[in-house]
User: Fold DNA ligase (ATP) from Rhizobium mesosinicum.
Amino acid sequence: MSRRAKPLLQDDQVLKSKPARPRDPTQPNLPFDPMPERIEPCLALLKQIPPQGPDWAFELKWDGYRLAIHVEPKGVRIITRGGHDWTHRFPTIAEAARKLGVATAILDGEAVVLDKKGHSNFGALQRSLGGRGGRRASTESVFFAFDLLYFDGHDLTKTELTVRRHLLEDFLDDATGAIQLSEEVDGDGAELLANACSMGLEGIIAKHRDRPYRSGRTGDWIKIKCVQSESFMIVGYEQSKVARGGIGSLLLAARSGHDWVYVGSVGTGFDAKDAAELRALLDKLKTGRPAVALKGKNLVFAEPTLIAEIEFRGWTDDGNLRHASFKGLREVQDNAAVFDINEKPAGTM
Assistant:
């Protein structure tokens, strides 16, 4: 893969930030830190408006699978957000990691498949993996690294983002293969978001420059989307005698602690073939005990197992998705990515 994504172009130039400070070649040797088996990822908090001020750095929001690459003396491991080993699913990325020329490192980033414009495409990534439950290995995917958590025997999670990014930029200088640098961009957040949206991109991520790497949704990282896209659990479907595949719409739910909350249905984004495959999967999961309290004619309820990536335009007053469209199924290992209703920004409609 030689194509390099060039997001947020203005006059054919990538807006890149300068390193915050020069590296000190006289830095004394530091004691080695034990390499962790896994680091729970830092997650971005959803907001409607980008933050302002010099404390924030911006990047493109990628539409793919969040992964951590562990480069170890004994080999390479590629770990999903939920902690599953997917090294075998991304052999091209794993091979590129073996050639990085470092004994130990943990890279945080996202695996994507790029279209001809250099934009990430979740549906293309899913197809490259053979769809949900598929056994294909994705050779088309590219890993965009946006953080460096461990490097050459040293734990970097307690250092501020500017230091981690500086090391990452040096480490992946001009990388163009299956592992690339997620470019940091300079500028006003509102202008960058408008630029991203005008190009049909997913949105932007804002990160506080002076914060350490903290697991969970702390607010150190913020995501601002052009079009909202989240993962929801399919809890059933509405039967139809006229719709393709016999499915009129899919019934969706979000998390609320250990419970499920109905957030509406989606009836677009899938064709007759998709609908037939979805119905076959859901019919195997039929249940008489719905995961959500919902009544209506022609409803078929299913065990909460299938996870759908849904694009939507906002929320209605009664808490349902507006103008929802189906993008594809996520793997069962992506259970951790299902949207929590408590993360919905206040005032969204």
About this structure: The helical segments are 91-98, 122-128, 161-171, 189-198, 272-283. The two ends are 40 Å apart (CA to CA). The chain is about 15% helix and 30% strand.
